[in-house]
């Protein structure tokens, strides 16, 4: 294994269903790491500002319908088009805190009935996160939170399917968090594990092998 000459940033991902509290935790973590003097940046998928991202945005806002497989590939392309910039930032020592990643890609599309292995395949070889936090809600809590959204997918029965697929996708390296807990408690746990990860991976090479071992 080749080691890096200068330390790199960590690739931290938060995953979960809609309304699981990811976006709040991502912001809290970025603010805290900045306070502690880390070089850190918030990233979010889908990245709606690119051309591909604006097509995804129209789809999510129900402005446009797109074939299930075609939109799946657009979500994946949206991740791929960001890879070189993300890689550069990580190698420059910037820690990326990322709101959603390829796991959402597979979970949301498979919840529509697409084959899970097919859903994973366009994302094979993406950067592999150094840590994945999964914001897990009980079905009772999910019940309370779902059903108010305006975007596509923000519907209770669909979110339940997504949650089940996330639970199927998770591997032993994921940190599964009880997302029903108080915001500050969750934040402290995410902060503690993120600091450990930043330290642990600082001189390790980036891994560009997402899901390669599964196929
Ligand atoms: P957010 O901006 O985090 O609320 O995400 C917007 C919606 O898009 C949310 O319902 C989850 C869904 N989503 C995120 N990534 C993907 C993806 O790669 N594929 C599909 N099909 N849906 C996704």
UniProtKB/TrEMBL annotation:
Top-rank EC class of the record's enzyme: transferase
BP GO terms, sorted: dTDP biosynthetic process; dTTP biosynthetic process; dUDP biosynthetic process
Pfam families membership: Thymidylate_kin
Entry keywords, A to Z: ATP-binding, Kinase, Nucleotide biosynthesis, Nucleotide-binding, Transferase
InterPro entries, per database record: P-loop_NTPase, Thymidylate_kin-like_dom, Thymidylate_kin_CS, Thymidylate_kinase
CDD domains: TMPK
Coiled coil feature spans: none
Domain Thymidylate kinase-like: 14-190
GO CC entries: cytosol; mitochondrion; nucleus
Functional pathway: Pyrimidine metabolism; dTTP biosynthesis
EC assignment: 2.7.4.9
NCBIfam families to which the protein is assigned, alphabetical: DTMP_kinase
Cited HAMAP family: Thymidylate_kinase
UniProt record similarity statement: Belongs to the thymidylate kinase family.
Protein name in UniProt: Thymidylate kinase
């Amino acid at each position: 294994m080749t080691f890096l000459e200068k330390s790199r940033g960590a690739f931290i991902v938060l995953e979960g269903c809609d309304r699981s509290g990811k976006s709040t935790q991502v912001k809290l973590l970025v603010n805290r790491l900045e306070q502690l003097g880390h070089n850190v940046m918030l990233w979010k998928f889908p990245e709606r500002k690119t051309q591909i991202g604006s097509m995804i945005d129209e789809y999510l806002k129900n402005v446009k319908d797109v074939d299930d497989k075609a939109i799946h590939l657009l979500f994946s392309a949206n991740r791929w088009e960001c890879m070189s910039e993300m890689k550069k930032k990580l190698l420059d020592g910037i820690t990326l805190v990322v709101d959603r990643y390829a796991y959402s890609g597979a979970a949301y599309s498979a919840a529509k009935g697409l084959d899970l292995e097919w859903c994973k395949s366009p994302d094979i070889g993406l950067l592999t996160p150094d840590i994945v936090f999964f914001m897990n809600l009980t079905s009772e809590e999910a019940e309370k939170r779902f059903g108010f959204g305006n975007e596509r997918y923000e519907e209770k029965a669909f979110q339940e399917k997504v949650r089940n697929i996330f639970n199927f996708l998770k591997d032993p390296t994921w940190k599964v968090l009880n997302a029903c807990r108080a915001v500050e408690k969750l934040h402290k746990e995410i902060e503690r594990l993120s600091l450990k990860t930043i330290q642990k991976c600082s001189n390790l090479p980036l891994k560009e092998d997402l899901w390669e071992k599964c196929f």
